[in-house]
Amino acid sequence: MPAGTLYRGREGMWSWVAHRVTGVLIFFFLFVHVLDTALVRVSPEAYDDVVATYKTPLVNVMEYGLVAAILFHALNGLRVIAVDFWSKGPKYQKQLLWTVVGVWAVLMAGAFYPVLQHTLRTLFGS
Amino acid sequence: MSAETTPAVNDSVSLYDVDNPAPVIEPPRKRTKKTPKTTRTNFEMYGWLFMRLSGIVLVVLVLGHLLLQLVLDGGVSKIGFAFVAGRWASPFWQVWDLVMLWLAMLHGANGLRTVINDYAQRDNTRFWLKMLLYTATVFTVLLGTLVIFTFDPNIR
Ligand code: HEM
Ligand code: HEM
Fold it and tell me: What parts of the sequence cross the membrane (chain B) (predicted)?
């Protein structure tokens, strides 16, 4: 079997799996997120109570995970669009994927402190 | 990197000849008499296009939202009722959140529809999973819209 035609198990397949998993995750988050935001119509206290959970260390780390999922889905989504609409897209799909991974890693490193600063400051003092 | 992606099949031996003709395979998108009436629209093509167009807009809306909520100005620490009141005092952010709500929900719901179609094999299971998805989607979009339009900073 020539390696180039083997889609299964290679970059193309795994990026598709990751795109699908992150998309489903974000959708479930969004559902819960609209519900918790709706508490602003109940009372300021009810809303602030639920937002307090967003500030616990565990959930704060999950937020970093959400950022990871969205950044990957967004960047890889742009890659999918490039593969579909740019004439050279399919040819460079692999290079595009590694570009996505690279940009993702840089943005994740940059987001580390800003996103987790709440936890870092409460755990290790200001 | 070489041109690994182009197929390198160059078999001189063919499986088919006059005695063993290859089976005729219709082009996948060809509409024949057997095609059910309900699939004779371009719904799936528009769905495909919508995923791409909404995706491009969502990059700006969602990444902008995350930047404002989780990165700038102290990260998640600042969020609370007063913060939301400040943001939704401006029609600009109301419209931003409204468009983001609708596009993300429709994009996500259409994506999940594909996922359900892929994995739920029994007709019944597939039908009810999609009904659940559509109900949850309509409910969430309406609730979110209502919340943006009826937000009252002086609720207490
Ligand atoms: C953990 C990360 C997130 C935080 C802390 C957060 C925070 C907030 C806050 C404080 C609001 C109130 C309105 C405003 O300030 O603009 C809001 C509304 C909203 N957010 Fe997020 N957000 C997050 C992630 C997301 C993501 C990933 C999406 C989209 C996929 C999203 C979509 C929305 C929508 C649609 C609304 C409007 C809700 C409504 O209509 O009731 N948010 N968010
Ligand atoms: C941030 C910008 C986004 C971009 C650029 C983007 C792009 C895309 C594209 C191009 C597809 C089609 C993939 C294909 O046909 O193979 C897709 C699928 C999908 N997206 Fe997004 N998307 C974004 C945000 C979101 C959000 C916020 C959600 C959740 C609410 C979401 C959930 C999904 C799901 C569930 C799928 C289906 C995955 C599949 O069929 O494997 N996406 N996205």
Answer: 49-72, 92-110, 131-151
Domain regions of chain B by residue span: 43-150
Q: What is the CATH number of the domain that holds A87?
A: 1.20.1300.10
Judge whether A95 lies within some domain: yes
Q: pTM of the prediction?
A: 0.86
Number of neighbours of residue B41 by Cβ within 10 angstroms: 9
Q: Does residue A43 sit within a domain? A: yes
Chain segment B15-24, per-residue pLDDT in tens: 777 777 777 7
Structure confidence at residue A59 (pLDDT):
94
Question: Which top CATH class is B43-150?
Answer: mainly alpha
Please give the structure tokens belonging to residue A64. 């970093």
CA of A67, nearest ligand number: 1
Angle (CA) B41 B46 B50, round 5°: 160
User: Does residue A6 fall inside a structural domain?
Assistant: no
Residue A7's pLDDT is what? 63
Which ligand is the nearest neighbour of the Cα of B54? 2
Residue nearest to atom 40 of ligand 1 (CA): B144
Query: Which tens digit of pLDDT belongs to each residue from A46-98?
Result: 999 999 999 999 999 999 999 999 999 999 999 999 999 998 888 888 899 99
Q: What pLDDT, on a 0 to 100 scale, did the predictor assign at position B74?
A: 83
| Closest-CA distance of chain A to residue B76, Å | 7
In a domain, residue A21? The reply is yes
Structure token pair of residue A71:
């950044």
How many angstroms separate the alpha carbon of residue B107 from the centre of ligand 2? 7
Range B78-92 average pLDDT: 93
| Domain encompassing residue A72 | 11-122
Contacts of B47 (CB under 8 A, 6+ apart): B110
Higher pLDDT: B14 or A48? It is A48
What is the nearest CA distance from B33 to chain A, expressed in angstroms?
30
* Residue count of chain A: 126
Task: For residue B7, report the distance from its CA to the centre of ligand 2, in Å.
Answer: 29
